[in-house]
Write a structure and sequence with these properties.
This protein is of the alpha/beta class. It has 6 helices and 12 strands. The strands form 3 sheets. A 6-stranded mixed beta sheet has the order 2-4-3-6-1-5. The chain has a 4-stranded mixed beta sheet with strand order 9-10-7-12. Strand 9 and strand 10 form a beta hairpin. It starts with a helix and ends in an 18-residue tail after the last helix.
């Protein structure tokens, strides 16, 4: 009787597990880590220039049995210094007991070839904002840095605040420090709409703006104007209506300054560089008068015609 009751309870428990499977069991194990350059076969630049790791086939089998939610994201921890980062997985072709990761990731975790790391499956929020700081001023030579960064981040799955990631563009490797990520210190960038900002690169100094000093004009523009001829307004002497003499204000009549005659059409070979002159001179009065005399209209100078025909 007791054995039947025990088998019934076991069947009831197993049936409950079949109806409601456990989805929350995490993946947590340790591996020896190596850089991608140690991976057998051809050189894998796609792994070196990204933020994903290569794991053994047994990890895929274990992750499948644990019903880990896709995309598979992992927290990688160096327990000796308690430093961690986050990454995705690219392939499951590594040797058993080993994982391969980009060199910049090993450098962040202060790992050497063959060190032990802890791998744990995690679920992190989708990124909405991130801020990067280039580690060299050569990054400013890129014409469109946001477009370049967006293209390079396609090989990444996660971003962690404090990491120093490396991207490659035009056969040049650039290091970027992840200063801030939102909504958390670790975010996933798979199929996300993320705002990106850049901090000034390390070693960058703002260029000092020099105020341009105004150079005094060497020649007064009024000196280029010819002396007016003919009638000049307000050149006469004033007189008082009561017949008294004017008071002397102590001003002495000085001879007018002989202005330099400006001839149009002749270049000034001594013209200083960067100086603009606007010629507002008028034509000479004698030229205008001679032209006006030639083209002066004379009235009643035409030939007369009669409307009546002459009688023969």
């Amino acid at each position: 009787m007791g054995s039947q009751e025990q088998s019934f309870k076991q069947f009831q428990f197993n049936g409950f597990n079949m109806m409601f499977p456990d989805h929350s069991r995490p993946f947590n194990t340790t591996y020896k880590c190596y850089s991608v350059s140690m991976l057998p076969g051809n050189e894998r630049q796609d792994v070196e220039n990204g933020g994903k790791i290569i794991m053994p086939p047994s990890a895929l089998d274990q992750l499948t049995r644990l019903n880990v939610v896709y995309p598979m994201l992992f927290k990688i921890t160096n327990g000796s210094i308690n430093r961690s980062t986050h990454a995705g997985v690219l392939e499951f072709v590594a040797d058993e007991g080993k994982i391969y990761m980009p060199y910049w990731m090993m450098h962040n975790l202060a790992l050497d070839q063959g060190d032990i790391v802890e791998i744990e499956s995690v679920s992190i929020p989708v990124a909405t904002y991130s801020k990067f700081q280039p580690q060299s001023v050569e990054f400013l030579d890129i014409t469109n840095p946001k477009a370049v960064l967006e293209n390079c981040l396609r090989n990444f799955a996660c971003l962690t605040t404090g990491d120093l990631i490396a991207i490659k563009y035009n056969n040049t490797s650039y290091e970027l420090s992840v200063l801030e990520t939102k909504p958390g210190p670790a975010v996933t960038i798979i199929e996300c709409d993320m705002n990106v900002e850049f901090a000034p690169p390390v070693g960058y100094t703002e260029p000092q703006r020099r105020e341009k000093e105004e150079e005094p004009m060497t020649i007064d523009p009024t000196e280029l104007m010819p002396e007016p001829t003919g009638f000049v307004a307000f050149k006469g002497d004033g007189t008082r209506l009561d017949g008294k003499k004017k008071k002397d204000n102590g001003t002495n009549d000085t001879a007018p300054v002989q202005r330099q005659a400006y001839v149009r059409g002749i270049p000034d070979y001594d013209h200083p560089y960067g100086l603009l002159r606007f010629d507002r001179s008028v034509r000479r009065a004698d030229q205008i008068e001679s032209k006006s005399e030639d083209s002066k209209f004379q009235e009643f100078q035409g030939e007369g015609h009669s409307l009546k025909k002459d009688r023969k």
